[in-house]
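pinned: reference chain
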Amino acid sequence: MNMKKMQKSVMAAIMMLGLVVAPVAATVAAAQDAAPAAQQDGGGLVDAASGKAVDGGEQKKSGAGGFMDVVFGSGVLGVILWAALFGDGAAAIYFAVDCWVLIKPNKIMPQTLISKVQSAMAEGDVAKALNACKDEPSPMANILAAAFQHVEEGFDIIQEAVNAAADLETERIMQRLTWISVCSNLAPSLGLLGTVQGMIMCFATLASGVPDIGALAGNISQALWTTAGGLVVSIPSLTIFYSIRNNANRLILRMTALTMELIKDLRNVEVEGDAQA
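pinned: its structure tokens
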């Protein structure tokens, strides 16, 4: 229960971060867009009179090309895209850590649960084994509990219950991993959208007549930076996804084999029940 509360709190924090960053970044971007216009109004005549580069032009050139200039100088849409990329990266980190912590042998099939069930089955005490499953909540405990709850209905029904419970637990595990895959697939799309935006701005600059080389370089930089940002998020996320997924598949196979080994003694319990009847 505490783990679920912590997960909800972290997700809420990520969402709040996105809601806070996007409008703040948009406001800063608007201010950044307004500043060059003011410099041009005040410094254009000085340029024409002196024939030399003025401070405004020098500051513009010296500030161009940096990452923060690309983020805050790409307009409101660009800032929102960068906020979405940062949020996607934060979500990928959260889900990766969550799956890395929870998809472990001691979380999927605790050794204490296995020992208790083996001891109970050696004594032929199904009720004790069922209580052990309730005391050690885990995916394997849920599967074994499904078997023990149908012990009086025959071994065929037990196997069906085990298969259904195993499919359900497998789906729950894989649903956690799916979110890492979603983040890894979303990042390149966001980067591509930023690339398209940068190219649109680039051609708009070219269409204005005499192109501003600094603005043109900034637009191309925006296109390349967003592509790189999307790949930086996507590549590690994809690598982590397949790594944890393979580990989860191995654990599920081990859990399935061990579960069948533990419930095979239920054949004898069934025979004893029929004999007493």
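why pinned: The radius of gyration is 30 Å. The chain has one domain: 77-276.
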